[in-house]
Specification:
Two copies of one chain form a homodimer. By secondary structure, chain A is α/β, with parallel strands linked by helices. Helix content of chain A is about 35%, strand content about 20%. Chain A has helices at about 40-60, 105-110, 120-130, 190-195, 195-210, 235-245, 245-270, 285-300, 320-330, and strands spanning about 5-10, 15-20, 25-35, 75-80, 85, 90, 100, 115-120, 140-145, 150-155, 160, 275-280, 310-315. Chain A has a five-stranded mixed beta sheet with strand order 3-2-1-4-8, sandwiched between helices. In chain A, helix 3 crosses helix 9, helix 5 (about 195-210) crosses helix 7 (about 245-270) and helix 6 (about 235-245) packs across helix 7. Chain A is globular.
Chain lengths: ~325, ~325
């Protein structure tokens, strides 16, 4: 059977990555343009379309397929912050240089009539996992993405939950600890404030301020010393230190794991998923996060769900999930 | 067009109420048997079937319809604690005299081949609201039922969320306050521990122990005095006192409203419902609960959902919702 091709676009605050995706989950070609160059969607979509045409013109050399007409693509899928599935717009995304209501679907319509589907980046990641990754054949699962923020995509009965607004699935802004840490959303105690990359750093910095670094730190060059300024600390640095045995870093990820485990247990009371997938920078630390996370999950999960929901890392490659996920969205409208 | 008829059964810990339900949401006949008489489902289902046959034999006098054959019913819907939609069983319900795995659908199959559908009582209430009540035409909404416990039913894309296990939608056991009050489920800090009838009483009793009753209580016979023993206090008594201005009772429902408002705001991050419906004993107090609840909801809701989700009381009558909801479940399998 002939392969089909789709475009997946990952709209990041810094770069916009896009790819020509074959239906067997192979990214045939990739392009990137700097999102920061654009304050208006008209030139932005024009330049994206030029890149799409360029990728299509090159075809799929591995399969010996020559130029692909844009109108033969199965569609254009776009994962973007505050992307709304119902309206085809990006709605007041705080971290994009383009502001306000961005009518992407309408703008793409100037160039092509193939399906154009938007959703937020975490929903795209979830659907990528469903179409191409570890959630194939799972009718009920949740994806939680840890990065600068914390996003989520929820699949119920094999469909992404978009809710009445088109913007459902924001577990990062579930209030985990009432009157807790200030969150980027202006409220307090959200999961994001505790388990985003910034949340990880905040936990470490607070712990260090309270306890000071252990005396043996000076013998361990791969631990984080007292001389590293708060502002220079990253979640990756803490992850590396945790894997090198730095007690403060281990303690940091233990706490993050406990919070995330509680959040995962709470999510089960909603949709009773058969799995929760995790992805994103702070998850790369591995065991220092996952071990306490799984322990906390088991401790906090309601009895009737015990043993019936697994925690997995995303099966998709970190540098592919956003493009694959965006391309997968097209299946929601076909 | 000719009317159709269904059976709705509400399995309570004390009584089992059932009704013959016409498709215009009229309960044509009702029966009740004491659940507490049964430790085995064989005689229980036998006696239920006898009541169903008795209701059907009487027909629908208002419409001049004579005896209805059981096999002409659209189905039998059963709302029961721990009722599992997928398996047709009640699974280890702690508050029923019948114990273990109760295979109701199979047991009913001994008598009839019409659809037999089980779900838990809160799911039934939610679907009753969807089919017969205030949620008609709402594709995304949540029902929260406050009673001895706190249950919930979640509708996404017009379908009840049953999840991978058949037992999704247990927002009463979402952990609202980590390491908070002990809950009946054995964990700590669940919504149920704060907003069930028992949670309301616990809040009042704790407040009274801490503050004592206000000196002016003796002038107000409709306030709760210091002489009423803790064990004699009910959530209804506190509700009546709150409506009579008893400051401790008002404070109690203010706190309950704040907790419930936070829980409702958190639920929005999951499915972005267009409404959350409430029902059950502790909601009957009215404004002393609903005013602080709505205020807390507005304060805690994530910006993107603000103004897009309403809090309503169930539109169904308290003494009808369980039977109507159970009967409505049949639509999920037809």
């Amino acid at each position: 059977m002939q392969n089909t091709y789709a475009i997946g676009i990952d709209v990041g605050g810094t770069n916009t990555d896009m790819g020509l995706v074959r239906d067997d989950a192979k990214i045939v070609a990739r392009r990137s343009i700097p999102t920061t160059n654009y304050t208006d969607i008209v030139p932005y979509v024009k330049d994206i379309m030029a890149e799409i045409e360029s990728m299509c013109a090159a075809g799929d050399q591995e399969k010996g397929v020559g130029a692909i007409a844009v109108d033969e693509l199965t569609g254009i899928g776009m994962g973007a912050p505050n992307g709304n599935f119902y309206t085809g717009c990006v709605e007041w995304a705080p971290n994009l240089p383009m502001k306000g209501l961005l009518e992407f679907e309408a703008e793409f319509r100037k160039y092509t009539n193939i399906p154009v589907v938007l959703s937020n980046d975490a929903n795209a990641a979830a659907y990528g996992e469903y179409v191409y990754g570890g959630a194939r054949n799972m009718d009920h699962f949740i994806m939680i993405t840890l990065g600068t923020g914390v996003g989520s995509g929820i699949v119920v009965d094999g469909k992404l939950v978009h809710g009445s607004t088109g913007t459902a699935g924001e577990l990062g802004h579930n209030i985990l600890i009432p009157n807790g840490r200030p969150c980027s959303c202006g409220r307090k105690g959200c999961l994001e404030a505790y388990t985003s990359a910034r949340g990880v750093v905040k936990t470490y910095v607070d712990l260090r301020a309270e306890k000071g670094v252990p005396p043996e730190t000076e013998k361990h060059p791969d631990w984080i010393g007292a001389q590293v300024a708060d502002a220079d600390i990253t979640s990756k640095m803490i992850g590396d230190a945790a894997n090198a045995g730095d007690p403060l870093a281990v303690e940091t990820y233990r706490m993050v794991g406990e919070w995330l485990g509680l959040a995962c247990a709470n999510a089960c009371t909603f949709s009773a998923p058969s799995a929760i997938f995790l992805m994103g920078g702070p998850t790369k630390v591995g065991a220092p996060l996952l071990d306490p996370l799984r322990k906390s999950f088991e401790e906090n999960i309601l009895n009737i769900y015990k043993g019936r929901c697994q925690i997995y890392m995303s099966h998709l490659k970190a540098n592919e999930v956003a493009i694959l996920g965006a391309a997968a969205l097209i299946k929601l409208k076909s």
